């Protein structure tokens, strides 16, 4: 059988498992959630004993309590509550992250930490396939944020963490607290433009067993106009040409998520856990596009119109097993196993009609099918040592198994569509990483030190089946880390940290096959890519007193082999986008965070970053060189507790210019409003207005000696949402920071 026929057959096979997977998970979790309240009819257990009084915080961890803002800091991370973020009640994870210090999220859902987009996003300490690859921005823009309790920002992780992600780690902690008996919450929101979302969360704690689950649904409407201008030289010698492309994408997004977890405690110090989660994100949208090329005199040289549609489904199934033995405080043994399957299926139909020169219409039918398996095994042991010291050692194994399939069909005029083997391909990527790590933490008077070392062995196998190209790479790297904290007094603290991290290229970055996107845009990976290496340094100051906290952090990063997009003009206005190691880079900045209260029951949360960055791409040639830029990022939130039951919230953020290898991305800004009324501790209503001023815009500039391109557009994100939340059983509507519940990376 010809290779392209096998590709087509195997590609059709991938999507078949998804329907049964979806029905099975949805049925099981829904049944569990419905059964939970019924079990509550059994006699209620005895009341739990009153909680112990909290211990005084040490230099390793600072807990802000009472009326303090929802911020927690420790020696290696900062944690921010989103319990009072009204946008998070009706918005996506991307909406919630936009209000977190250090984090920038553009209008397409792409995340950066202090200007660096090489971020690892985790859920309860575990990486997720939903936040990898080309669709990671769509996942953040689509998945509901109402399950998120708090967000941990770890800009300089210790050696106990996976070193992947040179910018650091964003860890999303979900709501998992369970009280004796049955408790839970119901949430429903309706919005303008046909937007709706809702969810059900429930837990049942009975003796040694705790069962919990979530079910959420989301429907969004999408509309994104786009305009691009490309200037280049006519290869036929006719002088400069200008290409103007106008398009509008519009459609809908459907999101389904379920989770079911069971914890069994055979004794007070032992826990065995099992959890299964399923998420599905589906997009259906239409695209209308016109393209016109004119010469220097404004005369039309070529033009076409296209109309088409695209359907995209991303399904993610994850199963987790865990065992924890807690011997005493800071003395425990953990084992976890994760198996995850992610599938992406994109179908794109395009009809292209040529106005000049006149030619038969062209029809394209492209299928993109990606399957990703991930396996993680982690074992760690922590125990206290003499001198108030703490030690942690462990082993971690991560394996990725990826298949990328493209089946391209085309037809001209009225002819039937046929598979084009020159534009169809199969690419396989396998990666295994074995890691040993250890950390040692000890106080020396007012100084606390946390030192760590991680050793990783990585093996990568590449197989471009269509082109019969195989290659691989094996290497061993060492990743040290050091964190220092010094308590000046009860209110002030200094910190310093260093870590060495890596950014491995994404699987598709290695694919040498040239992918056809449209007649003027091609993309291609680079099997010769090396992982990006980064050394990160930070100095920090913290002040906290009576509900006020100020944080100031200076940071500096330097590295080599940065993997960036590179654009090449192939002639005739055809642009090839590929990936390359652009050489050395560095950045330095100052971050300021302030949380506190003002007169009149007003609280504030303000943060900003002033950043300088430089990219040295002189080794690439074709006009690339050393580029640097200054930029700024900021966000602010004002909360007014007008009455005991009424909260008003105004939020805004500004993302500054981002430096690229051959250009930059333009700034963007958004302003949001929210209002919540509590009818009781169990029932509340929320109204949110997103993008009040309609300023959701994006743009980029690519400037090379061969051509210049400007792209600008916007997303019609302005929307009004009305929602209600109801808590049942032993719960109540959450509106404060909760320090329990949810895992943390490295635990």
The averaged pLDDT comes out at 86
Could you tell me the CATH topology label.
Maltoporin, Chain A
CATH class: Mainly Beta
Largest sheet: 22 strands, antiparallel, barrel
Structural class: mainly beta
* Rg result: 26 Å
Task: Provide the CATH architecture.
Answer: Beta Barrel
Low-confidence stretches: 1-69, 733-747
Structure annotation, total helices: 5
Helix content: under 10%
Would you report the number of β strands? 40
Count of discrete domains: 1
Quick structural overview:
The chain is mainly β and 747 residues long.
What features would you describe in this structure?
The chain has 747 residues and is mainly β. It has one domain: Maltoporin, Chain A, CATH 2.40.170. Helices cover 7% and strands 63% of the residues. It contains five helices and 40 strands. The strands form four sheets. It has a 22-stranded antiparallel barrel. A seven-stranded mixed sheet has the order 1-2-3-8-9-6-7, with no helix packed on it. The protein is globular and about 80 Å long. Mean pLDDT is 86; it is low at 1-69 and 733-747.
């Amino acid at each position: 059988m010809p290779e392209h026929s096998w590709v087509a057959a195997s590609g059709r096979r991938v999507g078949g498992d998804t329907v049964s997977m979806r029905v099975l998970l949805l049925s099981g979790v829904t049944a569990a959630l419905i059964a939970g309240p019924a079990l509550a009819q059994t006699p209620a257990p005895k009341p739990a004993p009153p909680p112990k009084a909290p211990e005084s915080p040490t230099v390793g961890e600072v807990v802000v309590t009472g009326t303090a803002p929802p911020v927690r800091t420790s020696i290696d991370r900062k944690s921010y509550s989103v319990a009072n973020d009204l946008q998070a009640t009706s918005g996506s994870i991307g909406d919630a992250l936009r209000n977190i210090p250090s984090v920038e999220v553009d209008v397409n859902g792409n995340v950066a930490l202090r200007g660096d987009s090489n971020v690892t996003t985790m859920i309860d300490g575990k990486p997720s396939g939903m936040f990898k690859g080309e669709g990671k921005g769509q996942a953040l823009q689509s998945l509901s944020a109402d399950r998120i309790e708090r967000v941990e920002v770890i800009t300089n992780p210790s050696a106990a963490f996976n070193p992947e992600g040179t910018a650091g780690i964003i860890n999303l902690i979900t709501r998992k607290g369970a009280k004796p008996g049955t408790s839970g919450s119901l949430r429903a929101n309706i919005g303008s433009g046909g937007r709706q979302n809702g969810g059900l969360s429930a837990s049942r704690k009975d003796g040694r067993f705790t069962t919990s689950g979530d079910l959420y649904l989301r429907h969004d409407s999408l509309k994104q106009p786009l305009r691009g201008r490309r200037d280049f030289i006519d290869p036929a010698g006719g002088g400069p040409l200008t290409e103007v492309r106008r398009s509008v994408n519009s459609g809908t997004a459907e999101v389904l998520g379920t989770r079911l977890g069971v914890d069994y405690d055979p004794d007070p110090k032992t826990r065995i856990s099992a959890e299964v989660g399923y998420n599905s994100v589906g997009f259906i949208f239409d695209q209308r596009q016109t393209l016109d090329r004119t010469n220097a005199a404004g005369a039309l040289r070529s033009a076409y119109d296209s109309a088409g549609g695209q359907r995209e489904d991303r399904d993610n199934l994850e199963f987790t097993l865990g065992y924890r033995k807690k011997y005493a405080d800071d003395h425990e043994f953990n084992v976890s196993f994760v198996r995850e399957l992610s599938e992406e299926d994109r179908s794109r139909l395009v009809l292209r009609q040529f106005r000049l020169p006149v030619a038969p219409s062209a029809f394209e039918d492209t299928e993109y099918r990606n399957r990703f398996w991930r396996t993680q095994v982690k074992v760690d042991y922590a125990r206290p040592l003499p001198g108030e010291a703490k030690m942690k050692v462990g082993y971690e194994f991560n394996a990725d198994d990826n298949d990328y399939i493209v089946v391209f069909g085309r037809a001209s005029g009225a002819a039937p569509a046929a598979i084009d083997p020159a534009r169809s391909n199969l690419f396989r990527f396998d990666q295994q990483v074995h890691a040993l790590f250890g950390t040692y933490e000890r106080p020396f008077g007012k100084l606390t030190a946390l030192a760590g070392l991680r050793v990783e062995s990585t093996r990568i196998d590449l197989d471009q089946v269509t082109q019969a190209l195989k290659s691989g790479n094996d290497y061993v790297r060492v990743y040290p880390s050091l964190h220092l904290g010094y308590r000046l007094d009860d209110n002030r603290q200094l910190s310093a940290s260093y870590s060495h991290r890596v950014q491995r290229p994404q699987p598709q970055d290695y694919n040498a096959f040239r992918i056809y996107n449209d007649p003027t845009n091609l993309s291609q990976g680079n099997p010769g890519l090396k992982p990006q290496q980064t050394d990160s340094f930070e100095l920090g100051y913290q002040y906290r007193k009576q509900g006020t906290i100020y944080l100031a952090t200076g940071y500096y990063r330097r590295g080599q082999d940065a993997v960036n997009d590179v654009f090449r003009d192939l002639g005739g206005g055809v642009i090839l986008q590929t990936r390359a190691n652009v050489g050395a880079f560095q950045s330095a900045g100052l971050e300021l965070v302030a949380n506190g209260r003002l007169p009149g029951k007003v609280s504030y949360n303000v943060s900003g970053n002033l950043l300088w960055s430089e990219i040295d791409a002189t080794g690439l040639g074709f006009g690339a060189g050393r580029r640097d830029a200054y930029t700024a990022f900021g966000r602010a939130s004002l909360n007014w507790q007008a009455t005991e039951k009424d909260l008003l919230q105004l939020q805004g953020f500004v993302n500054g210019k981002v430096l690229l290898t051959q250009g930059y991305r333009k700034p963007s800004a958004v302003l949001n409003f929210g209002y919540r009324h509590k009818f009781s501790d169990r029932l509340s209503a929320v109204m949110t207005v997103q993008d009040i001023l309609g300023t959701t815009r994006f743009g980029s500039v690519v400037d090379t000696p061969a051509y210049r391109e400007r792209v600008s557009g916007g997303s019609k994100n302005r929307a009004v949402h009305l929602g209600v939340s109801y808590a049942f059983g032993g719960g109540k509507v959450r509106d404060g920071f909760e320090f329990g519940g949810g895992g943390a990376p490295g635990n």
